Amino acid sequence: MQNSFYYKRENFDSTGVIVEPKLISITDVDAVINDLDRFLKDNKDNLEEGKEINYANSEKTVVNSFHRLENYQGYFFNELSKRSKIVDLAEELLKDKAELISIQAFVKPGDMGLAAPYHQDNAYWCIEPDNGLTIWIALDKCDKSNGMIKYVTGSHKIGVVEHTPSLAPGSSQIIEEKNLPDGEVFNPSLNPGDAAIHHTMNIHGSNPNNSGKQRRGILFCYKGKKTQRNMELFDRYQKNLDKVMELRNAE
After folding, report:
1. How far, rounded to the nearest angstrom, does the alpha carbon of residue 128 sit from its chain's CA centroid?
2. What pLDDT was estimated at residue 1?
3. Which end of the chain offers a freer environment for a tag, N or C, measured as fewer CB atoms within 10 Å?
């Protein structure tokens, strides 16, 4: 009899996105939320805007997202990224040993949470082969009403889609509507502790959050051990990111 992992992997291979209910407990959810608050208090004055933190408002008083959290040790989210239940799931889907690439948090406030234009993660990661995934764990009730992620199912199979530089905070490269492929859009509903897991080539994005309800999520990004980063592409991306940041800051 084939186990549940087989069916998860089969579905993931087919659609590029699956949902894993109750991946972490409510106690874990509360611990992540508390440590994100502590992280901001500890590091706010030293975080680089556009690369480590993005704000939802021009006054820079409301946070929309944190990035590169893996560079900061001593927080619960670091421990959580190494938990066997999470790493084992990543390895089953990758069919390889999982290596952590990054930890991020999108805290998308309820009255001004920013949209995330459609994109593919590997336009940023530049790994070859493209064997990577993101485990997106809900810290709140997340659904269409408060800007939960939308995934274009099957889009991980079509290769890299043309991306355009973007000045939108948290989105340095986007896929313009004219370049979006046809496909069913999956917009899951998650309870706190549930996870949506997507392939690094899956096309995804989200709408703004104007619901009055928070939409927080913690993200663990993994790649297969047998992959390598194409440094030529990655260096080119980093240079483009620096140019985008210059333009964004000049606005």
Report:
1. 19
2. 36
3. N
Of the options 2.60.120.620, 3.40.50.510, 2.60.40.10, 3.40.50.280, the CATH number for the domain spanning 4-250:
2.60.120.620
Residue 198's closest CA among 217, 164, 221? 221
Q: What is the pLDDT of residue 40?
A: 98
Say how far apart CA 143 and CA 120 lie, in whole Å.
21
Closest CA to 116 of 161, 147, 158: 147
Tell me the mean pLDDT in the region 111-116: 92
Q: How far is CA 23 from the centre of its chain?
A: 16
Q: Contact at 8 Å (CB) between 97 and 222?
A: no
- Proportion of the chain above pLDDT 70, given as a percent: 95
Contacts of 48 by beta carbon, 8 Å cutoff, 6+ apart = none
Dihedral in degrees, nearest 10, Cα atoms 93, 95, 100, 102 = -50
pLDDT in tens, 149-204: 999 999 999 999 988 887 776 677 889 989 999 889 999 999 999 999 999 999 99
Tell me how far CA of residue 101 lies from CA of 19, 81, 154, in angstroms: 21, 10, 23
Q: At what angle do helices 84-94 and 4-15 cross, to 10 degrees?
A: 60
For the ranges 70-84, 161-175, 236-250, the lowest mean pLDDT is seen at 236-250
